[in-house]
Design goal:
Number of strands: 15
Strand order of the largest sheet: 5-2-1-6-7-8-9
Low-confidence stretches: none
Radius of gyration: 22 Å
Family: Belongs to the Fmt family.
Organism: Paenibacillus algorifonticola
Shape: elongated
Order of helices and strands: EHEEEHEHEHEHEEHHHEEEEEEH
Number of domains: 2
EC number: 2.1.2.9
CATH architecture of the largest domain: 3-Layer(aba) Sandwich
CATH topology of the largest domain: Rossmann fold
Strand content: 15-25%
CATH class of the largest domain: Alpha Beta
Helix content: 25-40%
Catalytic activity: L-methionyl-tRNA(fMet) + (6R)-10-formyltetrahydrofolate = N-formyl-L-methionyl-tRNA(fMet) + (6S)-5,6,7,8-tetrahydrofolate + H(+)
Mean pLDDT: 93
Largest sheet: 7 strands, mixed
Protein name: Methionyl-tRNA formyltransferase
Length: 325
């Protein structure tokens, strides 16, 4: 039973480790190429590559899985089954047809909802309270294959994309352990997705990270949680980039506590637990922030040395504020 594993981020590592721990023969690991990261743009291997090398497994890193060279290199390993988890590329027909048992994917949502590359982040951003993991046979479309198994996972108000990644990563590995024997023995059954119910979770863009103070406090709270700890949400203060990494859970506004009380994005209070900002519905307390040119820190710590006054408005960028934090 020869398995090729394909994955890239930390989400996929427990599934790879599960295969090894349970004695499956992983003949190769395919992952994305090393990418530059951080301010210094240091070339950094993906987590799956690091895990595979630590396990002594051969690693392939094709730039494009659709290239004939990548398919030929993969074919040399003669896989009986390909297992993917957040690999990051759509597999071409030639690769899908390569293993005799097909290709299966560990996907971080309850399909057909949240097909695409950012299902975990967008579930939080959209205010979902339940998500999960689906294991499916892969098809040529984007997460359109028949479903083999599912498990639900609750999303709490305290979850960030980081904590939910960990939950779903562990749930995915456990579900993979339960599902593989049926696939290998040929008794697993698969159910076609209800394609008319599909929703999509495209990869996040820079605009998804920008805070729109016209939204409700709850919507912005969900946005901040869904973007932490990876990209972070951002706004501007005095024309300079200002990131928001965490907020206090908003209290539902009583009566007409709305933008009529103050201009959207206005600092209502600066002190105590953080920075209280007017939104389109209610106020939001920023608790973990990152001003331009500084490291992330608690808002309370930053306020000790800042001159942020009540009435200050978070607004637009200046012409020179394009630099990343």
């Amino acid at each position: 039973m020869r398995i090729v594993f394909m994955g890239t981020p930390e989400f996929a590592v427990p599934s790879l480790q599960l295969l090894i721990n349970k004695g499956y023969e992983v003949v190769a690991v395919v992952t994305q190429p090393d990418r530059p990261k951080g301010r210094k743009r240091t070339l950094t291997p993906p987590p799956v590559k690091e895990a595979a090398l630590a396990l002594g497994l051969p690693v392939l890193q094709p730039e494009r899985m659709r290239s004939s060279e990548a398919a030929q290199a993969l074919a040399q390993y003669r896989p009986d089954l390909i297992v993917t988890a957040a690999y990051g590329q759509i597999l071409p027909k030639g690769v899908l047809e390569l293993p005799r048992l097909g290709c299966i994917n560990v996907h971080g949502s309850l399909l057909p909802r949240y097909r695409g590359g950012a299902p975990i982040q967008r579930a939080i951003i959209n205010g979902e309270t339940v998500t999960g993991v689906t294991i499916m046979y892969m098809a040529e479309g984007l997460d359109t294959g028949d479903m083999i198994s599912k498990v639900e996972v609750a999303i709490t108000d305290e979850d960030t994309s980081g904590s939910l990644f960990e939950k779903l990563s562990a749930a995915g590995a456990e579900l993979l352990e339960q599902t593989l024997p049926g696939i290998i023995s040929g008794v697993a059954t698969a159910t076609e997705q209800q394609h008319e119910l599909a929703t999509y979770a495209p990869n996040l863009s820079r605009e998804d990270e920008r805070i729109d103070w016209a939204k409700s406090a709850r919507q912005i709270y969900n946005q901040v949680r869904g973007l932490s700890p990876m990209a972070g949400a951002f706004t501007y203060l005095n024309g300079e980039l200002f990131k928001v990494w965490a907020c206090a859970k908003p209290v539902e506004p009583a009566g007409a506590d709305s933008a009529a009380a103050a201009r959207l994005g206005t600092v209502r209070e600066a002190g105590g637990a953080g920075i209280t900002v007017q939104t389109g519905e209610g106020v939001l307390v920023l608790t973990q922030i990152q001003p331009a040119g500084k490291k992330a820190m608690s808002a309370a710590e930053w306020l000790k040395g800042s001159r942020l006054a009540e009435g200050t408005v978070f607004g637009e960028a200046s012409e020179t504020s394009g630099a990343e934090l």
